[in-house]
Write a structure and sequence with these properties.
The protein is about 15% helix and about 30% strand. The protein has about 130 residues and is α+β, with helices and mostly antiparallel strands. It has one domain (about 15-60, about 70-125): 2,3-Dihydroxybiphenyl 1,2-Dioxygenase, domain 1. The protein is built from 2 helices and 9 strands; from the N terminus they run E-H-E-E-E-E-H-E-E-E-E. The chain has helices at about 20-30, 80-90, and strands at about 15, 35, 45, 60, 75, 95, 100, 105-110, 115-125. Strand 7 (about 100) and strand 8 (about 105-110) form a beta hairpin.
């Protein structure tokens, strides 16, 4: 029988060239407190969850895929899509598309300062 997990995607790893610059970008764009953790075998910066107990993913030192060649990780906007897109540009990323409407909300494609493909997503008002 097929399974249907509560959370199908449970982790995302995003390679970045400059950890401090990437932490500043993601913290600013998504209004989160990301901090560098050097305790493990590699430094990481965790994406926090609301309850502080969940797993969401992290940044790590690495080589991003060539532009257009890597996967796209989509992130929830902390406020409006437009405000988040403004912060992407202000923080050194690039907005690649106009907002795209889908039944559950709207999103746009962007890149972070390392060229990683990201999406920013806002749920439709309910």
């Amino acid at each position: 029988m097929p399974q249907a997990p509560e959370n199908f995607t449970v982790w995302a790893e995003i390679p970045v060239r400059d950890m401090d610059k990437a932490i500043a970008f993601y913290s600013r764009v998504f209004d989160v407190a990301m901090t560098r953790d050097d305790a493990g075998p590699n430094p990481v910066a965790m994406f926090p969850t609301a309850d502080g107990k969940g797993v969401a993913g992290h940044l790590y030192p690495g080589t991003p895929a060539a532009a257009g060649a890597g996967p796209t990780v989509h992130f929830a906007c902390p406020d409006t899509l437009e405000a988040t897109l403004d912060r992407v540009s202000e923080a050194g990323g690039e907005v690649l598309s106009d907002p795209i409407a889908i039944p559950v909300g709207r999103f746009a494609y962007c890149t972070d300062p390392d060229g990683n493909s990201i999406g920013v997503f806002a749920y439709a008002a309910t």
